[in-house]
Amino acid sequence: MTEKQVQMTEPFSLRVQKWSFKIFVGIFLGIILVVTYFPILVIALTSISTHPSGYEMPGVTFRWYGMLIHNRELFQAILFTLRITLCSTVISTLFGTLTAVGINALNSKWRKRMIILNNIPILNADIVTAVLLLIVFQTFSIFIHVNVIARYSEITTLIAHVLFSTPYVVLSVLPKLNKDQGLFDAAMDLGCPPRSALWKVILPNIRSGIFSGALLAFTMSIDDFIITYFVSSSNQNFSTWLYGNLKMMKNGQWNQACAYNTLLILITFSAIIIYQIFQSKKESRRRK
Questions:
Q1: What are φ and ψ of residue 53, in 5° steps?
Q2: pLDDT per residue over 47-79, tens digit each?
Q3: How far apart, in whole angstroms, are the C-alpha atoms of residue 208 and residue 18?
Q4: How does DSSP classify residue 50?
Q5: CA quadruple 265, 269, 271, 272: dihedral positive or negative?
Q6: How far apart are CA 109 and CA 131, in angstroms?
Q7: Can you tell me the distance from the alpha carbon of 47 to that of 266, in angstroms, rounded to the nearest whole number?
Q8: pLDDT-above-90 percentage for the chain
Q9: Minimal CA–CA distance to 238: which of 157, 164, 159, 132?
Q10: What is the dihedral of CA 275, 160, 132, 121, to 10 degrees?
Q11: Under DSSP, is residue 61 helix (H, G, I), strand (E, B) or coil?
Q12: Element of type H or E holding 116
């Protein structure tokens, strides 16, 4: 019997329940998509609005994208954000991957303890982490008689971002390592040295987890506000710049901020789509 014939033999009440469930799922999914993507659409429209405050749409223009470079404070904040984000992503991905490999090599008892210890910074509130780092840097300043945060704000910000991003990388890499527990031992039994087994066997096998952890670290770092606000004084990232200038937005600064966010969203979406296409092609080649 075909699917249509099976549906015709079903009781009418059962068919009504199935259609009602499908309609409910469709409406619920539509609400979720609207709530998720409507703010992104508003930001994109604001970035091309000719109105200097972005609250109206009298016309369309792309001049705000070109003015990103000419707005010195905003451009410096964007450069600072990208420097900190890229450096912290690379460092936290390296540290997180090596930490995950080390945790996976422990016995079951110590592995559980280290995972719990790794989860504490993730579950901890950002304000608590920010205050703790502020106290640490201020205490260090007393010993060396130099205001570390004021003089080395870029270094303190980088350290803070690496500290709160690394646990997320560990959580992304560990599940990939757990899938092939005996892979390292198998490589060793076949005569592969420990260092070569790590670089040529383990890391290529978990590269998808490493990429996911790097993407998560990048996302956590690029829009951080609370921790950056506490540990950076002389330098501002985009979030702290936006907070400090939110009440004085004029001459298209709000449109320029939305233009930066739109570019960031487009780059992020493009990277995710390209990665998914690459993964799907890879899976199809494996099946063939």
A1: -105, -15
A2: 888 887 767 778 888 888 888 888 888 889 999
A3: 38
A4: S
A5: positive
A6: 32
A7: 13
A8: 22
A9: 157
A10: 20
A11: coil
A12: helix 108-123
CA-closest candidate to residue 88, choices 174, 164, 171: 164
pTM recorded for the entire structure: 0.81
Tokens of 126: 């950002």
Of how many residues is the chain composed? 288
Second-level CATH architecture of 72-287 = Orthogonal Bundle (1.10)
Between CA 272 and CA 252 the distance in angstroms is 30
Q: Answer yes or no: is pLDDT of 10 > 80.
A: no
Q: How far apart are CA 65 and CA 166, in angstroms?
A: 33
Angle at 79 between CA 63 and CA 43, to 5 degrees: 45
Give the separation between CA 115 and CA 215, rounded to whole angstroms. 21
**β partners of residue 60:** 49
Report how far residue 249's alpha carbon sits from residue 256's, in angstroms, rounded to the nearest whole number: 10
* 68 burial via Cβ count (<10 Å: 0-12, 13-18, 19+): middle
Distance CA 34, CA 223 (A): 22
The HSE-up count of residue 141 (CA atoms within 13 Å, CB side) is: 16
In the block, tokens 């770092």 appear at: 221
Residue with tokens 């559980």: 112
pLDDT in tens, 222-231: 988 999 999 9
Each residue of 166-207: pLDDT tens digit?
Answer: 999 999 998 888 776 667 667 766 677 767 777 777 787 888
Q: Quick one: tokens of 54?
A: 């972005």
Confirm if 264 and 222 have CB atoms less than 8 A apart.
yes
